[in-house]
Design a protein that fits this description.
The chain has 415 residues and is mainly α. It is 69% helix and 1% strand. The chain starts with 7 loop residues before the first helix and ends in a 10-residue tail after the last helix.
Length: 415
């Protein structure tokens, strides 16, 4: 089994960020604040971005893109209105940390403040960017090596890539999950191609814009990202309502007495864990979750309920009939057609199924065999392994075993 990363990793990241912040604050207080106007402007930008942050969604890494872009822009700022700036790495860390602390107050009052791991990541990533850029720029080495043309832009691009990779490594280290570090790092790298790319690009454009036009460039350059952030916040609300509607529809089989209480929720939670174990990207995980919630909805067409809702014990032909009826119901609800396809194919031979259907078939059979009784987990897994010749994909069964062995949604107990 792949070893799980040590639990002290997140504490080490937090401790490093705290020590760096204290040292930067002491340095700034001792030497004074250089260019207070710039520090105030960028601090206000980071604060506004944090206050307007959206709620995290599956597959999304950055809930405060405007705050991240502003912090990165301050780290990469070498000139303002054509005049050189003199702030250094300690002041960048101090301003970003102070802005995050100020913005966290109203969020904490509502019980929705950013976690310490996210704050630590932000501080360390920004400190990394500033440490790579500020000494080179202030000493004149960057101008000597890269000039002010395409080579300098390439230098910023390489620096942004390194900063993004630094944040990815920290995100995987601080993730609150028993999954191995390798799959977590792979997931973070996939997520980087989303809003993370826009944050890095906007931060660099802000720094270059201020270098030419001064602080007046900040409001002009940050408005598009702020509007995008507000729009995404509305989208997040719609998506949350959409998922709640699907979850309510999935409970109809429980209310009607066709499936045990909590069956759909357990299958969805464990299917998501197995999907992440197998490295499915965010969009596929969403389809997997919706299909897992609605996988038994075809049972509503039955005159007599299946005992305990255990469709895994039915003949294959009956399983397929129920799956096709369930897919027809899903299509009428307006849910993504990909979800209906997964529901329809969950009873087919696994070699003919998409990955999501293979996962749901294995997890559904597991829950039918043991339900909430962890004492039956070993027997259920043994039965699944015996069916890997035709019914269940071996890789999915082993991924399920790995999730349970690490204390997944239904812990595997050997005693």
């Amino acid at each position: 089994m792949t070893p799980v990363r040590p639990p002290l990793a997140a504490l080490a990241v937090r401790g490093t960020a705290l020590a760096l912040t204290v040292a930067a604050l002491a340095h700034t207080l001792w030497n004074g604040v250089a260019e207070p106007g710039h520090a105030l402007a960028f601090g206000a930008l980071v604060t506004v971005g944090e206050l307007a942050r959206w709620g995290s969604l599956p597959g999304e890494r950055e809930p405060a893109p405007l705050g991240s872009a502003g912090a990165l822009a301050y780290a990469l700022l070498g000139r303002s209105g054509g005049e050189p700036t003199t702030h250094g790495v300690p002041q960048v860390v101090t301003v970003v940390a102070a802005a995050q602390l100020l913005a966290a107050v109203p969020h904490l009052a509502r019980g929705s403040g950013p976690g310490p791991d996210r704050v630590a990541r932000r501080i360390l990533a920004v400190a990394f960017a500033a440490a790579c850029f500020q000494p080179l720029y202030n000493s004149g080495l960057s101008a000597r090596w890269f000039g002010e043309g395409p080579c300098f832009a390439l230098f910023l691009l390489v620096l942004l890539v390194l900063t993004a990779l630094c944040d990815v490594v920290l995100a995987a280290l601080t993730a609150v999950t028993p999954r191995p570090y390798g799959p977590l790092l792979r997931d973070e790298l996939r997520a980087l191609s989303g809003v993370g790319t826009a944050v890095c690009a906007t931060g660099a454009v802000m720094a270059l814009g201020v270098a030419v036009a001064g602080l007046w460039a900040l409001p002009v350059l940050c408005v598009p990202l702020l509007l995008t952030q507000v729009s995404f916040r509305r989208y997040a609300g719609v998506r949350t309502t959409y998922r709640q509607t699907i979850a309510s529809l999935a409970r109809s089989t429980e209310i009607a007495g066709y499936t045990p209480h909590g069956h759909a929720r357990r299958v969805a939670g464990l299917s998501l864990a197995v999907g992440k174990e197998l490295g499915l990207p965010g969009p596929e995980l969403t389809v997997l979750e919706y299909a897992a919630l609605m996988h038994d909805i075809g049972q509503l067409s039955l005159v007599d309920p299946v005992p305990c809702g255990a469709t895994a014990t039915l003949p294959v032909a009956e399983q397929r009939r129920i799956a096709l009826l369930g897919g027809a119901v899903v299509r009428r609800t307006g849910v993504d057609a990909a979800v209906a396809v997964v529901v329809e194919q969950q009873a087919d031979p696994y070699r003919e199924q998409p990955t999501a259907a293979r996962i749901i078939r294995v997890v559904n059979a597991y829950d039918d065999l043991c339900g909430e009784s962890a004492g039956k987990a070993l027997h259920a897994l043994e039965q699944l392994r015996l069916g890997t010749g035709r019914d269940y994909q071996p890789q999915v069964v082993e991924a399920l075993a790995g999730v349970l062995a690490r204390g997944g949604p239904t812990p595997l107990r050997t005693g």
